[in-house]
Amino acid sequence: MRFLSMVRVAENTGQVPSERLMAEMGKLIQEFSAKGALVDTAGLRPTHEGVRLRNNHGKFSRTDGPFAEAREVIGGYAILKADSMEEAIALTNRFLEVHGDEWNVECEVRQLEDMDADCSKAA
User: Fold this and answer.
1) What is the value of pTM for the model shown?
2) Rounded distance, CA 5 to CA 109, Å?
3) Distance CA 77, CA 108 (A)
4) Residues 78-88: pLDDT tens digits?
């Protein structure tokens, strides 16, 4: 099974990762990749560089960032391969532990749908 771990952060703090955090994160990424638990991961650029597109019942709109109503934003993600939600949560907890007490960070973990299987059922 695959899971998406979305990293939520307060965007406007100006906080940047320390050298210690970057080194520990590099080790964690290597560890997770070596055991096949990490499919992909990345940080996201600031919301002022982003765009939101919406279809509201056929009415299309665009909002350029930054997004004033957002207190917390998705600052990054990891796509994890795990046998269960519990395992995906354990992997995400390891990610949170690496941050120590330097950061106020939250992750949301959700299982990804298997679109190949779901679409083949509909055919």
Assistant:
1) 0.85
2) 4
3) 9
4) 999 999 999 99
